[in-house]
Amino acid sequence: MLHLKKNYDDHVHGSKESNDTLSKFKMPENEMNPKEAYDAIHNELALDGNASLNLATFVQTWHEEEIHKLMDECIIKNMIDKDEYPQTAEIESRCVHILADLWHSPESSETIGTSTTGSSEAAMLGGLAMLWNWRAKMKAQNKPTIKPNMVTGAVQVCWEKFARYWDIELRQVPMKEDRYTMSPKDVLEYVDENTICVVATLGLTFTLEYEPVLEIAKALDTLQKNKNIDIPIHVDGASGAFLAPFIKEQKKLIWDFKIDRVKSINASGHKFGLAPVGVGWVVWRDKESLPEGLIFNVNYLGGNMPTFALNFSRPGGQIIAQYYNFIRLGVEGYTKIQNNSAEVGKWLSNELKKFGIFKIIYNGTGGIPGCTWTLTNNAKVNFDLYDLAKDLRSRGWLIPAYSLPENATDIVVQRILVKQNFTKDMASLLIEDMKRSIDNFSENQIGNDKKEKRSAFNHS
Ligand SMILES: Cc1ncc(COP(=O)(O)O)c(C=O)c1O
Question: How far is 138 from 332, CA to CA, in rounded Å?
């Protein structure tokens, strides 16, 4: 019976340690039973929001069991050890070429690209290549290279970081009332011969809409013809590069390497690539678009290995999971999932319209699956979207309210990202909860004091 006694001793909630608080600012002197350490941290994590109700994030919040298994198998592998883990390196390379092919690179089996930790790192690499190519071009023409700039719409903060860290002037075309994407006309007003590239975003972080890559490219063609200024495009396809090839009404959209001017594309594997968080991709249209000087060759891992990334050590599991998705789902599987998500986005937008108080900014068509809305100017309500976000959070839904960037900061919106596990059934429950919240506000008059505050907003 000795083993029974041992079991009692082992009970995770019966020990002295389990009745103590965890050390927060100093490493504890003594070790702890792994079960208890696990249980303590596991309990603390319950204070996080529920990831599957997180409709704010672009990052996937659900994965097949097989992905969990592969991630576990790869936890001990550093993807940078390419000589030691040649199969992981091979799988990374396959992913690059699959993406190059999906995005119509003229040299898909030859071209170059790399995995990254996400789109932010991928954007830095894409931007750096643009900077180096511009410098080389200017030097060849005996022109100064001290004032590079780049032209973008309302980009994600990674591009602001890129511009600040590498000392490049960021010329961000401001949003306009009722037009949140950058137009070809805007672009021409902002570019000059010191423009290293134009970044067009396929899926704006703020509204989920796509920017018109082909039209921007055509405007730049005309500029080149008239003024002999040749400006390349980088497409930030963090979300859209994994959506446009699959969503019914987007398949005809021309946005990728089919356009000569598009020299590089980044995408987040962990967004609509459906891989677990921690993987992004950048791919160049051809080898010439990536300056050789940016590639380092290291030999201290065994073998001579080229590396072109900001990070060195990185987990290999996300890359393997990305490849798992490619072979597991194929075009057929991605098409089904992305179209389902797009349909839920449209359905939600229709339901929101029926409330009669919301102005739909993005209705789920033509961009990322989801929708974006604000309150109409004449909505007779005693709450604002910040109140609504807070009330929905009490049910577990994470749908924050936020203001749009420069030139549109007085517009407060809410936005939902529809990911694979946010089914129509869940969407219908959300709409029920929104109805309940809104009814509660009007019954309780709790937001009365907000009327004054709201009148300061311009929701148009
Ligand atoms: C358009 C766009 N670009 C870049 C990023 C940064 O991506 P990551 O989080 O993968 O670094 C995001 C993230 O939401 C984004 O929406």
Answer: 45
